[in-house]
Amino acid sequence: MADAAPAPSAQTLDDRRAAAKTWFETLRDKITARFEALEDAADPALYPGEPGRFELTAWDRGSDGEDLGGGVMGLMRGRLFEKVGVHVSTVHGDFSPDFAKRVRGAETDPRFFATGISLIAHQRNPHVPAVHMNTRFITTTVSWFGGGMDLNPTQAYQRDKDFEDSRAFHAAAKSACDAHGPDYYERFTTWCDEYFWLKHREEPRGTGGIFYDHLDTGDFDADFAFTRSVGEAFLQAYPAIVEKRMGERWSEADRYEQLVQRGRYAEFNLLYDRGTKFGLETGGNVTSILSSMPPHAIWP
Fold first, then answer.
1. Rounded to whole angstroms, how far apart are CA atoms 257 and 255?
2. Are 148 and 238 spatial neighbours (Cβ–Cβ below 8 Å)?
3. What Cα–Cα distance (Å) separates residue 283 from each residue in 10, 59, 93, 196?
4. DSSP assignment, residue 87?
C-alpha cells in the first residue's frame, strides 16, 4: 500500500486544526464516491431498486446564535448498503465540569476543539461484513490523534481472524502501522481487541483491526501522516471486501444470524463506545451520533 499523500507541515495550532479538518473532509469525499460506485455495480437481481446516494445534511452546534462548530451528516440507505453513515464534524467549546475531569488535559481548562470523521456501514447482504472506522484530532491544553478501523462480520463462519476477509483487513492495517512505527500494529491491534470486547457477554464485537488514542509523539507531522494512512488503508481494504462478497446469495437463516449479531453491535455502542459518549456529552448531533445503530436487529 502506498503511503498517504504528504500534507504541508502545519506550524501553528490553528494550522494543525485546519489541516486535520481538511483531510477528514477529503477522506469523506473519497469514501462516499467509492461506496456509491459499489451501489451502482450491485447486481439488480440481488439488489432491486435504484442505487442509493448519500444525503448530506449540515448541522450547527450552539444556541441563540452561538457558534460552537458543527458538521455534515452523510447518510445513505441503498440497495447494497442497507444503512451507512459517513460523518465529519468540527466542534469547540467548553466541556461540562464533570466531563472535563475525564478528558486528558481538560482538568484545569475545560476548553476543547475536536474534528474528525466517523463511519459505520451495515450491509443488506449478511455475507458482507459490517465495518466501523473513525479518526479524529482533539485539542485541550494538549493535543492528540485517535481512531482506528474494525471489521464486524455477522456470520459465524466469518467471525475468525483467520478468515480471508479479516486477514486482508488486518494486512492493510498492519501495512499502515508498519510504515510509521515498528510496534504500532502489535500495540494497536491488541488495544482494538481489548476495547471492542463485550464484557457482559464475554465475546468480541467483531474480528478487530486497530484502535489508538492519545497519539502525541511530539511530532505532529508524523502523527498526522499515520492518521491519514489509516484512512487510506480503510479505503484500500474494505471496498475490496464488499466487492468480493456482494454477489453471494443469502438465506433467511443467514439474515436471522445477521440480525442477532447486529444486536451485539448495538449493545456495545450504547454501553461502552467512547465516541457515542463524547458526542452526547458535548452536545453533538444526536441523529448523526446514533446513526451507528443498525437499521434492523433482534434480541431472540
1. 5
2. no
3. 29, 12, 10, 24
4. E
pTM (2 d.p.): 0.92
Q: Which spans in 42-147 are helix H?
A: 97-100
| Rounded Cα–Cα distance for residues 169 and 182 (Å) | 19
Active site residues: 132
Domains along the chain?
A: 13-292 (3.40.1500.10)
- Distance, CA of 293 to CA of 300 (rounded, Å): 18
* Cα 239 to Cα 67, 106, 207, 245, distances in angstroms: 36, 38, 17, 10
Per-residue pLDDT 10s for the chain (300 aa) are: 444 545 545 689 999 999 999 999 999 999 999 999 999 999 999 999 999 999 999 999 987 778 999 999 999 999 999 999 999 999 999 999 999 999 999 999 999 999 999 999 999 999 999 999 999 999 999 999 999 999 999 999 999 999 999 999 999 999 999 999 999 999 999 999 999 999 999 999 999 999 999 999 999 999 999 999 999 999 999 999 999 999 999 999 999 999 999 999 999 999 998 888 888 887 778 888 888 999 999 999
What backbone phi and psi angles, to 5 degrees, belong to 56?
-100, 125
